[in-house]
């Protein structure tokens, strides 16, 4: 008589993904952001080939992102929907700054900034030329993406992962050397240098800072570094608006999670998610009201 098989059943692909996400604190905070960026990149090629695919592709992009955010929700306790009184004034200020600064920069011909001002018609506008239903389907989906999904995964990436993982310059410099040592072509040279050997003797600094820095404390360097990453992910026309948003939202994270507050009163990312979502929702409305498609 053979012994019964007591081995665990093989994990499903979803369970394997969950385990992979849980194995590193960076993964649940950065993967949804990069999945969205990659989907947007490949979607651009599809839309160029067949404009009527836009609402279908964007719906798939939104669906995948919603699914990912749902899967990681227990791994990122800072992601919530707690409201705070700073949401409304910050959103009003940043909406004005984004449009005013973006308009000034978009209208200039100086270096690369003028490239942010597109004189061509938006892809969604072109859909409206042929079929109103495609237009409104795309606009409604764009609202879901801009106002609901983007604030969640961008704030997880920028105001949680970047703000904490790039907390101080010294460890960040060491982390950059460690990262360079893993890169192709230059990795061996960096690893064999004096600075590389010293850096590789230490624990991974990006992860160390992320784990050891709670949500709330900020430094001048962390605000600068996280805002720089935020700006890089946008077109040059939006860089000034990104700086305004980066500074204000980092200060909101600090104020609503400051150490003097009792633990149960700290708001996590909720206030900046609300503020970010409200700004994006109003930009969507601004686009429709004023027919200015540069900010969609």
Description:
With 296 residues, the chain is mainly alpha-helical. It has 13 helices and no strands. It has helices at 13-22, 27-49, 54-72, 87-106, 123-130, 132-165, 169-181, 187-192, 194-200, 205-212, 220-232, 239-256, 270-290. Helix 2 packs antiparallel against helix 3 (54-72) and helix 6 packs antiparallel against helix 11. The N and C termini lie far apart (69 Å).
Quick description:
The chain is mainly α and 296 residues long.
Q: Report the β-strand fraction as a percent range.
A: under 5%
The profile of the biggest β sheet is: none
What is the C-alpha radius of gyration, as a whole number of Å?
22 Å
Sheet/helix structural class: mainly alpha
The helicity comes to 55-70%
Shape: globular
How many individual helices?
Answer: 13
The total of beta strands comes to 0
* Uncertain runs: none
Mean pLDDT score? 91
Series of secondary-structure elements, N-terminal to C-terminal: HHHHHHHHHHHHH
Distance between the termini: 69 Å
